[in-house]
């Protein structure tokens, strides 16, 4: 009995820390039942700083000159996984956001794009094994990220423009963040025409920089 109660307590602790939960907790997560939750550390006029707990994702890599082409192939592969292409032929609910790791590259270079679907809470502990060897389960670490949100469609151009705007804002306050890549996060179905929500994430290297409004005003005037 003690063992069982201890095991139940451990499982509850793991799922509580996973921070995958009801989408009603986020005003911009409206199309799926579950969403990746976070703690808001601070926000300025240019970005938010969020803390995300370590969670599991199902991921796949695709190589292309353009994110749009890679994303179509990667999305199809991951969608097959959640609709039954796994060892238990299990149907898995769609969640948000869909995450794409964007590695820095020149316009004319081929790039490797990693797309990930967040695994729902009931599959965080023991997700079904993919049957496609190009699909894999990964656990992303606990991290703090700088976030810039924008509307419309997520394209190579819109992502690049917003990533540049975010990096410019971070550089202006001497924020330390991981270079060489960023994440593009999308919260909407391709069928959604209006009120779309996208994000750019840079992973914080050190303690995040959260300047006050007075400090921000001074930095731009000086």
UniProtKB/TrEMBL annotation:
One family name in Pfam for this protein: SOUL
InterPro entries: Reg_factor_effector_dom_sf, SOUL_heme-bd
Signal sequence region: 1-18
Subcellular compartments: Cytoplasm
Chief subcellular location: cytoplasm
One GO cellular component term: cytoplasm
A GO molecular function held by the record: heme binding
Keywords: Cytoplasm, Signal
SUPFAM superfamilies with a match to the protein in the record: Probable bacterial effector-binding domain
The family this protein is said to belong to: Belongs to the HEBP family.
PANTHER family xrefs: HEME-BINDING PROTEIN 2, HEME-BINDING PROTEIN-RELATED
Protein's job: May bind free porphyrinogens that may be present in the cell and thus facilitate removal of these potentially toxic compound. Binds with a high affinity to one molecule of heme or porphyrins. It binds metalloporphyrins, free porphyrins and N-methylprotoporphyrin with similar affinities.
Quaternary structure and partners: Monomer.
Protein name: Heme-binding protein 1
The species this protein was found in: Scomber scombrus
